[in-house]
Every structure is written in structure tokens, then in C-alpha cells.
Write a structure and sequence with these properties.
Structural class: mainly alpha
Oligomer: single chain
Number of strands: 2
Strand content: 5-15%
Radius of gyration: 19 Å
Order of helices and strands: HHHHEEHH
């Protein structure tokens, strides 16, 4: 038997999934880059958020096995999306950074998503727009809470 929190959670998941899927459909293939599989995208996002991370750091943050992250990183390096650099504190280790070209492509994709979403927001009634604005702080709080829970699991 579901409760109102379960129903709301299902609605939030559905809306978030649909939003991501629909925005992705608006991205041109040329001039950006292909959509990455989720695991690869998570590694790239983690390196963006924590530049100069080691593979073990990423594995810990994503709660994945070291060898899994190592394979993902190798693939991303081969695709030219991540760069390996010597760790300045330990010459035996490497740290990871997002390739500058990847950063530029990501910014173009973000700009396009904002353009598409902004145009659609412009079609909302003033009351609908205010409702979206009012929901944003709660969405941010949900994300922060989920992030904290996942870090402590």
C-alpha cells in the first residue's frame, strides 16, 4: 500500500526522468558530443566537482569498486574526455581532470538545455512559473539530503 510520500516520490522521479530525456532530445549531435552512459557521466561529473581526484577517491565517492572506476576512467581517457596528470604530492599516482575540450562541449550542451527550458518556461502561466520557482528550494534540499545519505551509506 502506498502513502502520499510514495506517490509524491514517484511523481518527482517521473518528472526528473522525463525532463532529462526530453532535454537530451533537443541536443544536436554535431558540435557537442554523444550522450555518455550513466556510469561514465557520473565519473565525469565527479571529476568536474572534484578536480585532481584519484581513481580511488572517485570510487569512494560513487560507491563503486576501484577496478570498475579504473575501467570507466580508461574509456573516458581513450575518448579524450579526461586527462591524467602526475599527482603533485605522489609521483607514483595520477590525478584526473576533465579535458578542456570536454568542458567546452559540456558548456555548449548546458547552454542549449537552458535555451530550450527557458523557452518552455516562457510558455507557463505566471502562476505556474511561480510554482516552479517556489519548488526549487525544496528540490535543492531533497538533492542535498539524498547526497548526504548516499555519502554515509
Amino acid at each position: 500500500m502506498s502513502n502520499s510520500n510514495d506517490d509524491l516520490a514517484r511523481g518527482v522521479l517521473d518528472a526528473a526522468f522525463d525532463l532529462r530525456r526530453v532535454l537530451r532530445a533537443h541536443l544536436p549531435e554535431s558540435g557537442t558530443d554523444e550522450t555518455l552512459p550513466l556510469a561514465q557521466a557520473e565519473v565525469v561529473r565527479t571529476v568536474l566537482a572534484f578536480p585532481d581526484s584519484r581513481i580511488g577517491d572517485i570510487a569512494t565517492r560513487l560507491k563503486l569498486r576501484h577496478n570498475t572506476v579504473s575501467t570507466l576512467v580508461r574509456t573516458l581517457v581513450d575518448k579524450g574526455l579526461l586527462d591524467r596528470h602526475p599527482d603533485p604530492t605522489d609521483g607514483r599516482a595520477v590525478v584526473l581532470r576533465v579535458n578542456e575540450e570536454r568542458t567546452a562541449r559540456r558548456e555548449r550542451r548546458t547552454d542549449r538545455r537552458i535555451e530550450v527550458l527557458s523557452a518552455e518556461i516562457g510558455q507557463l502561466t505566471p502562476a505556474e512559473r511561480r510554482a516552479v520557482e517556489k519548488a526549487l528550494p525544496a528540490m535543492v534540499k531533497l538533492n542535498e539530503g539524498l547526497r548526504l545519505v548516499s555519502e554515509n551509506v
